[in-house]
Amino acid sequence: MSYNGGVQPQWSYWSEELFYIRENDLMAVPIRTSARFYTLAISRGLFSIDGVSDNPLEPAYDVTSDGQRIVLVRDGMYTMEATVTVVENLFQNINSR
Amino acid sequence: MPAGELMTSPVYASSGHLLYNRTQGGKQGIWAAPFSTDSPGVGSEPFLVTEKGDWPSVSLDHTLVYATTVGKQEQQLVSLDREGGTIGPIGPSLSGLFSPAVSPEDDLIAVVGRDEDCWDIWMYDIGQGSRSRLTFDGYQESHPSWSGEGDRIVFSIA
What number is the ipTM of this complex? Predict the structure, then answer.
C-alpha cells in the first residue's frame, strides 16, 4: 500500500481513504473495503508536515470522517520558568563540612 | 575532567573556593572546590553545594545566588484543510499532546496530554474551543479511540 516507508496510518470513515506519514509528507491513498480490501490508485502526497513527530507509537494527527480536515499536533510555545535562590552565610556551612 | 562531564559558569569566592556548575550523566548541580591563586589548581576534593541550579554567583559577604530553570514545550491542536492550509487552532495548548482521535460526529477530539507529569486523556470541543480532562488517575493513558456510535472511548493504560 505504501512505498518507501509509511507510519501512523489513519482511516477516514466516509472518504474511503487511508492516510499515513512518509518522511515529512502526509500521504493519502484511495481504498475500497467492500468484499475485499484494495487500493484504487497509488498514494499521493497532500502536504508537507515538516517538524511533526513521525513516532510510530505516538500518532500526531487524525482525519475527520469526510477526510476533508486534518487535526494535527504542532509544537507551540516553549517556556522557561526560572527560580532565583539566595543562600546566606554559605561558607559557614561549607567550612563546617 | 572525566569523559562526559561538563563544567561551566566558574566563579571565585573570597573564601578560597571555586564554585561551578557540573553536569554529569544528565544530572547537574553546583559544586565547590578549595582554590588558591598562589598555587593554581584545585586543592582537596570538590563537594556538592546544591543538586539543582546553575549560574552561581557569590557576594563578598558570602551570599550565594543561583538560578534554577525548567523548560516546558507545549503543543497545540490545529485544524488543517487537505492542502495544509491552517483553518485554526483548537482549544488551549498543553504539553505532551499526542494521539488525537476525532469523534465520528467530528465535534470532539480525544487526545493524550500531560499535566504535572501525569499522562491523561483530554477532551477538546472543536466548536467551543474548550477542553476538559477525562482521566485523573496515576496511570499513563494513551491511544484513545472512539466507538462507531461516538458514545464510548477506549484507551490503553500502562
Answer: 0.79
